[in-house]
Amino acid sequence: MSSISVGQKRVLSGMRPTGPLHLGHYHGVLKNWAQMQHEYECFFMVADWHALTTNYDDTSKIEGYVWDTVIDWLAAGINPSSSTIFVQSKVPEHAELHLLMSMTTPLGWLERVPTYKEQQEKLQNKDLSTYGFLGYPLLQAADILVYKAGNVPVGADQVPHVEMTREAARRFNHFYGKEPGFEEKVTQAIKKMGKKNAKLYNSLRKKFQEEGDQSSLETAQALVESQANISLNDRERLYGYLDGAGKVILPEPKALLTPVSKMPGLDGQKMSKSYGNAISMREPRESVEKKIRTMPTDPARVRRDDPGNPEKCPVWEFHKIYSPEEVKEWVQKGCTSAGIGCVECKQPVIDSVCAEQQQFVERAQEYEESPEIIRNIVSEGCDRARDIARETMDDVRQAMGLSYK
What global pTM score does this model have? Predict the structure, then answer.
């Protein structure tokens, strides 16, 4: 199977190692990863270079955070037999592709990424007027493109990053996909498809180019993918010929929209360490109980016999995630009638959160007691990731005239 056809089912996603993961990470990302690993060829990356973009002035905790992150992933159900777990800095091809793509990427593209100014405003106590911070979206693009990943799981707010990756790949292919004799080689590749498929391919290409019909493009791409008797190079030429470009060196990925996280913080805002409202995935039970018991509730319930409104209470958001229907009905009835107090209302949440966390703690124990298991998992994942990254960089260097063979 070609790398292009594999890539269409390949997923790349990652996290920066910034400390213990919390329940927002689990319900917002890791549960989705655990499901995807059975549907896609998944590469999950600990993005330690990305951690440097905002924490370059203190790197003392990064190594420990890397291992903590991997343990939390495994505790959440990420299976190294079903996915590839690796550390970004252990695959230097990411940096090489980032460097080479920086030669063709316009400065304005980086400056217009929405999160660039947003992060600068949020982190005003940090000096983010650095090349590394400006260029991190391009490093993200290199992370994706070096694996020819067809899909990138993101929330709606991250779609601009994927779009910039597509633009960077398109521009790269425009400059370096024009191999000598491209048209002739495409003509020969089309003939290899057989008369019927060749006619269909040309018809779909014409409809896409003349009418902009996206479904024709997708049908033509699927047709190319289904051809078992053509080489990888011919397959890449046929993909590139469809949209008028040359040979596809770096395939454009698609945003794989993930469900919006419903996990709130203790104060009702989005759960975040920086907001001080988070519960870690493996936090001790005593700490969890204390945090939930002291959560704010509906401000209208000043006294025990004051009726309340669950929709105005952060605890209700936890019930939506953790409680079965009968408990939610009990809360609705009891809160609005003052039949139950806030302390009573919080207890089922405490029990459910702690039961979920106990699973994480039990799964993590094996890895905490035997660190060599973690290191072997990451080492094998890095080797697997680097094999693919090297293949991509061979193609890139050859296209750019840097192979010197």
Answer: 0.85
Q: Report the alpha-carbon distance of residue 317 to residue 336 in Å, rounded.
A: 16
Going along the chain from its start, the domains and CATH numbers come out as 3-177+251-262+371-400 (3.40.50.620), 182-243 (no CATH), 282-367 (1.10.240.10)
Q: In what order do the strands lie in the sheet with 254-257?
A: 83-87, 41-46, 10-15, 151-154, 254-257
Q: Which helix (H) or strand (E) holds 86?
A: strand 83-87
Q: Look up residue 94 and give its two tokens.
A: 């990411």
CA distance 86 to 92: 12
* pLDDT (tens digit per residue) in 116-134: 878 878 778 888 889 999 9
Choose among 287, 204, 189, 205: nearest CA to 245: 205
Run of H or E including 142: helix 131-145
Helix (H, G, I), strand (E, B) or coil at 135: helix
Beta strand residue intervals within 242-287, DSSP E: 254-257
Q: Does residue 337 contact residue 306 with C-beta atoms inside 8 Å?
A: no
